[in-house]
Every structure is written in C-alpha cells, then in structure tokens.
Automatic annotation (TrEMBL):
<dbReference type="InterPro" id="IPR036514">
    <property type="entry name" value="SGNH_hydro_sf"/>
</dbReference>
<dbReference type="InterPro" id="IPR013830">
    <property type="entry name" value="SGNH_hydro"/>
</dbReference>
<protein>
    <recommendedName>
        <fullName>SGNH hydrolase-type esterase domain-containing protein</fullName>
    </recommendedName>
</protein>
<dbReference type="Pfam" id="PF13472">
    <property type="entry name" value="Lipase_GDSL_2"/>
</dbReference>
<dbReference type="InterPro" id="IPR051532">
    <property type="entry name" value="Ester_Hydrolysis_Enzymes"/>
</dbReference>
<feature type="domain" description="SGNH hydrolase-type esterase">
    <location>
        <begin position="11"/>
        <end position="197"/>
    </location>
</feature>
<dbReference type="GO" id="GO:0004622">
    <property type="term" value="F:phosphatidylcholine lysophospholipase activity"/>
</dbReference>
Amino acid sequence: MSAIQSERILFIGDSITECYRSEKEHHSNQLGYGYVSFIYALLQATYPSKHYKVSNKGIGGNTIRDLQERWQRDVLSVKPDLLFIMIGINDVWRQFDQPSTISEHVYPDEFIETYRHLVQQSSAKKIFLLSPFYIQSEKGDPMRKMMDHYGTLTKSVAQSCNISFIDLQKQTFDPLMQGLDDIEIAQDRIHPSSVGHMVIARTILTHLDYKWDN
C-alpha cells in the first residue's frame, strides 16, 4: 500500500514544525500555519475520503535532547503510521547564539546516538528524517557549514536505521535560493516564509508519491 494512503501522520520537531500551532484540543489551528498544515490541506483536498489524522508535535527551541524527553508522550503513545522528524537547527544554533553555555550544546556524537535511539524505539510503518537547514547561499558561512554537517549526521542515522532521508537543504532550499534571494525565503535565515513552508510541503509530498496532476 502506498505511504500516501496511511491515515495517521505525525510531524515532530522545533519551531519550523510548530509554526504557531495551538495545543488546545479541537482548536482550529492545531496544525499551525506552516508546512504541516499545507500538507494536510493538499492531502485532504485530493483524497477527501481518507480522513487523514495529522498531528503537529513541533515545539519551538527544541533540540534532539528535548525530543528524547517527550518521545514517549508525543510519539510512541500516538502510534503513527508515518513519522516525520525535523530536528537539528537548534542543536547547531545554540553553539552560535550561546557559545559560552557549553551545557546547552549538542555535539555530533550525542546528536547521532540520541537520534538513532529515538528512531529505533518507534514502531511507525515508515519514518522520514528531514535534514536541518540554513537559508544561506554562501556555503562557506560558518553556520551553514555546521548545519550541512548536522544534515550529513542525520543522513547517517537514516542509513544506519534503514529509513528514508529527505535533504531539505540540498534538494529543496539550495535550488530555491538560485531563483530567490535568501531573505525572500526566510528573513532570519531560519524560519521560512510561506514560500519556504510550501516548498517543504512539496518536497515531502513528492517523497510520498503525491501526484501533482490530480
């Protein structure tokens, strides 16, 4: 059965995933204003009989450590068919915005070990790891270089666990930056505009074999 037919889909991550979602039960904005809501809208509009159960478990500022603390509550107890994980941006960012607060830094070894442990606990039918990204076209920029490295670490976790990897940096944003200025995609280089969120949604749906000519 195609992955797109799965009904229970969970997205977990940081503020990029959260995107102002409400945590109030049955609130009209439980999915936020970003890529999660775009994906749900496109799936439900295209396949109205499926009644997708989409959950947004993004929380702003989260690192892989934070996901570990809430994994049982927000992932394992939900038992999703499809699980999408986007994490790593804050793991990198903390090393730049809080350089002297070493206790807040998540270094590569911890990142890989924790990530692999979380993935191995999940019983989802299909798991996708999404790379962290930085909307900076200059690849020599220090933060862009470190973000690329954590993207490579994410890919290594996916490969070792034999699950899917989606490279949002190289597959999605680098091509987009060839046609648009960085600031048009994300003013602070981290939080995408509606265009940025839509291109994330398109990339994910493409990996689900969504037919854009429906």
